[in-house]
Amino acid sequence: MRIRTLGAIALAASVMLAGAAAAETPQRGGVLIQAYVTEVTSMDAHQARAGDSRVMLGPYAAYLVYVDSEGNFLPGLATGWEWESETQLRLDLREGVTFHDGTPFNAEAVAFNVDRIAGRTEPAIVSPGAADMRAVTGIEIVDDLTIRLSFDQVRAGFIQQLGAYWAGMLSPTAIEEMGEGFALAPVSAGPFRVTEYRPGAFVTYERFEDFYGVDEHGEQLPYLDGMRLMILPDNASRAAALQAGDIHLDQRVEAAQVMQLEADPNINIVEIPGFNARWIAFNTGLPPMDNVHVRRAIIHAINPEEVNMALHQGRAAAANQFFSPTSWAHDPDAPWLEYSPEKAREEMALAGFPDGFSFSAAHYGGPWRAEAELIQSQLRRVGIDMQVDAMDLASFSQLYRRDAVYHAGFTGHPMTARDPAHLFHAFHHSTGAFADPSRTTVYDEVIDRALLTLDDAERGAVLSEAFRMVYERAGEAYYIWVPAHRAFRHDVRGYALFSDGTSDCVTCWLAR
Amino acid sequence: MRDVAVRLVAGPLEIVSLIVILLLVAAAVAAPLLAPFDPAAADGFNTLRGPSSRNLLGTDFLGRDVLSRLIYGAQVTAAVAIGSVAISILFGVPLGLVSGYFKGLTDTVIMRFIDALYAFPPLLLSLVLVAMLGPSMYNVMIAVGVIMIPTFCRLARAQALVVSAQTYVVAAQTIGTPAHRIILWHLWPNIAAPVIVQLTIGMAWAILAEAALSYLGVGVRPPTPTWGVMLAEGFQYLRINPWLSFIPGMAIFLTVFALNILGDALRDGLDPRLRN
After folding, report:
1. CA nearest to A365 within chain B
2. Which of A300, A444, B137, B214 has a CA-to-CA distance to A165 between 20 and 30 Å?
3. CA distances for A386 relative to A72, A280, A299, B38, B224, angstroms
């Protein structure tokens, strides 16, 4: 056990990506305008259901722990943490912090947030972090700024989970007073407070004057007066807005726009290699997707290299497992089903569909639109008919994940420094937030074992075992790992990323 | 009818317009024979290519043949234009005739309903309808057809009010001719000309509406090619491959322009006051 207390407040990632921030003195003021491709499912951090929700949640939500782009834990609302035993974690909380509504942040607030995420408060909510927080079997408030969490068994990677997008510390007072309205005017203790939120359109934030963070010179953060984040689903429109100077920052640049923006001397582009894994999740409970040969046929019929060349200009890489080589959990020896139309036809014959079959798939726009169309064409070459429906994220969550009416769903995940076992859990465990809609339990035992294994090397071996299970049952169709791109105008400085590729812009400033 | 035919070939603009529409119809009917490739067949290693002897209009971002997609897109364009106008005429004209003939309470009830329908922004209403019904060509027809019902209804009512005051209609009423016979045999033939002219304008509008819905991603389900979808997809590459948007955009423009010119010619030919 060791205490991990970092002295300086470092809320953003260690890697500064924008401008010559180190050589310049940050200027105060200004409103940074940014755009993103999609809406969050909820602005209530506990109930948001997608990893990239952090783009909208991050500016207002404060977290106990932050994870930088290199996987290091940084103190947030917790200034220190110690595993006092294998099943007991002590958190030391930051002094003098208040939520945006003036409610003091203390151990009681942490206890309330843990219970709410676990679904133990009234009214109970459904949070993607429920499984992690339900593992907390005891909460002891030692004093106002110290809290002890108990578990019934070892919970490897729990600290990382405290930095997950859904683990923001929210104001208990605001939640109790506002009820369901909280999601429209959320309150936390982050660097900015939400002043206006129009679902599907924009969020505006203004600087929280009592924010606890300071920079390395002791200057109060954030530097900006405020921010405005607009939802612009069209990739070309976002790029055009950036070039025209209508926005300062595009939080998601697709490959088609990268070449265009690279040629613009006023734009900087950050590339995060191998960041996003894209794959097709199968609803293995819905025939014909319950047939392993059907699933294998689909995987063999997908040509990842063609997807890469057509849609990512060769910048991406063919995927063969859940984790890309940028993750420590990547297994270079993991077997996979390679692209082979001949094998696809063989599997179709074994499945009893020598002349082909049909299935339905859903996606929620963005990069999946083009990828789905190309893969649809690839599948048609061997006689597989994939009917694709595009929808918004909320409909996708409802129709694909909850109602399970589609055979497959286009999905993906970022290669964050989030603990790999927890990430794998989210998509594969029967209780995971993004699990196969059939809620299969085949991976539960091995995932539970990974979560109980503290040693990273041993945990990696357990995960490799899980990869083999995915391979044997052709549980999902990985097809590509793509780099993530962010683009910003030259006057943006101090832009830094968290491990999940998002930024709360706490250190951002505008050069004038 | 001779006057109409003469008007349709009265000048070079009318002749060109007629040719454009005939080409559209030919492409729609004979798409499988005319298109050199399967419009949905992607070739990811041959994307964003310019015009060549193999692909006369180049390839799109998935390596699909643009010419083939343009030809097959004409099918959807023609189907939506004809289908949606048929729906709006089928419902709008009878409602307008009944409203204009009976007047009074019947007229008030029907026209308030039509006014309510008219009050919705047309594209917004069609968006809502397609979102409710789901993305498919038939649902796009319904959505576009519904929003054009008020136009045909108002036109038919206005004409019916005028015609029903004519002496031959009054005479028919006097001898006890049933209302449905008067509407069918006296009113409808005498208001058909402006409806036919409106039909061409409606078709042009329907093509634009389908393109807009497809552009917004709620139109016909991929991989069925439509000009609106092609326009939207090309927009992503506007800076580096502008022809991907230019070609379907030009096809939409020419078709709508041709329909408007032919509409004017029809009006001139069918309106006795404009014949000379």
Report:
1. B217
2. A444
3. 42, 12, 13, 17, 13
